[in-house]
Amino acid sequence: MADRETFEVEALGHVVGGRVEPTDDFWGGTRAIIRLDGSLFTADATKGLEDFSHLEIVFRFHLTDPTDLNLGARRPRDNPEWPEVGIFGHRNMRRLNWLGISRCRLLKVDGLDLHVEDLDAVDGTPVLDVKPWFGEMGPRGEQRQAEWTTVMLRDYFAPAVND
Fold this sequence. Notes:
With 163 residues, this protein is mainly beta. The chain has one domain (16-135, 145-153): YaeB-like (Elongation Factor Tu (Ef-tu), domain 3, Beta Barrel), CATH 2.40.30.70. The protein is built from one helix and eight strands. A hairpin with a 2-residue loop joins β6 and β7 (113-117). The protein is globular and about 50 Å long. 15% of the residues are buried. Residues 9-142 form the TsaA-like domain. GO terms for molecular function: methyltransferase activity. Keywords: Methyltransferase, S-adenosyl-L-methionine, Transferase.
């Protein structure tokens, strides 16, 4: 058996505002701020970022129950109509390292505050990395995905329903 490697990472900031509870859908139009840690960075760290329309954010699913981990196969959202798929066939929060990646729209840079929209991370989420989105780094060639994902994500970025 190979030795397992572990790495220590440090939050470089946190999500401020936006939603307070993670939910499966209706993230469209959600606005928040990614507040970078002023004890680590100066405003120079965000210089030039305003030239980009989108960011790729790596974050930690900090509200996930650590006992809610399944490294095998399960049905997405526990829906009996969808096939069982392995942990690497999902993008959900039930992951070994509790890491999420989200692509969001950058609205404004204000010093160490990055104003964003459509970030599917909640208030207080530790942000581990911020990268500008380069179109050239997107998928190359024909794309395909399982049909159930299209059905499941139909309302993912739809506007939130107000009660």
